[in-house]
Amino acid sequence: MKKAISVVLALLMLCTFSVPAFAANQTPSVYSSYSIPSGTMRMIAHSGYAAVAPENTLAAYRAAGASDFWGAECDIHRTKDGVWILMHDDTVDRMTDGTGAVSEMTYDEIRALRIDAGSNIENYPDEKVPTLSEYLDVCKEFGLHPVIEIKAGADPDTLDEVAAILDARAEKDMCVVISFGREICVRMKELMPALPVYYLIGFEDVTQEDIDFAADNGLDGMDIHVYLPDDYVKAVQAAGLDIIVWTIDDIDNANRFYKLGVTAITTNSLTQEEPEGNGFQRLWWKLRDFFYQLKLRLRAFFRLDETIS
Q1: Which end of the chain is less crowded, N or C, counting CB atoms within 10 A of the terminal residue's CB?
Q2: Domain ranges in the chain?
């Protein structure tokens, strides 16, 4: 009966898009960021401060640097001529005025494009697709820890190029690498043993074997999805692994993972007020998170989530 009620409540959430209220002991920063009560859990800006400026742009990372984030996450792809650039998707279509797969375009072709989508794009008419090195420069300027997602489709044989870029930086000890690609995680750990490497994972079909993979290959932790249940979090911790959680855009989940003792959370925006930026994007974030919650509740109701023993 309780499970049935939970499912009904989840359905009712579809009609509720209000932003959660702040707890009384939380103080806003320059951009009204969520303030961790004790300061022990780190905050990572997802794709830069994506609620303020277009994702994966230097403007977004400067906005993150102007706030109180510990780190700033980016997504990297390799161009046809071997330049590592920031782009979430495999193609440039969604974020620029051009079209084409990143891997089939030269750096000069991509650099000629203009970013024409994202939060408050009207305030950033001249943004270009940045390189990994330019992103690292901005992180250094603001003291941000670079959190670099190497997309799962990357060729492991090209990762020595990424390692060389990071190894040449004086601030290399501040860098973190994350990836959904198992070969990528293992290869980066081989190339740079001191580099923190986290295995990225969602909540669909996760198993104890996923945790064992990270632990057995000497990875530093796992970067898990916000709607993984508490038992999974505790199983990751029991394996001696650190935890980053993606992507938390509500105060309740931020507080939940703070109490569970995770290392860091990644967020688009945790604010007192409605986030700035494109209204459709905000609605998409809320719908996406709602359906993740609904799927999790349905999995629990039909006993499909019993993957961690």
Answers
A1: N
A2: 2-301
E strand or H helix at 244, and its extent? Answer: strand 242-246
Cβ contact 285:268 at 8 Å:
yes
Any idea which residue has 């609620």 for tokens? 51
Per-residue exposure over 147-176, b if at least 16 CB sit within 10 Å of its own CB, e if not:
bbbbbeebebeebeebbebbeebeebebbb
Q: Yes or no: is domain 2-301 CATH 3.20.20.190?
A: yes
pTM of the model: 0.82
114 versus 290: the higher-pLDDT residue is 114
Kindly tell me if the per-residue pLDDT of 16 is higher than 80.
no
Which residue in the block uniquely carries the two structure tokens 């409540």? Answer: 9
**Residue 240 contacts by C-beta under 8 Å, 6 or more apart in sequence?**
215
The CA-CA-CA angle for residues 252, 12, 230, to 5°, reads 35
Segment 98-128, tens digit of pLDDT = 999 999 999 999 999 999 999 999 999 999 9
Q: From the DSSP assignment, how many helices (H) and strands (E) are in the chain? A: 10, 9
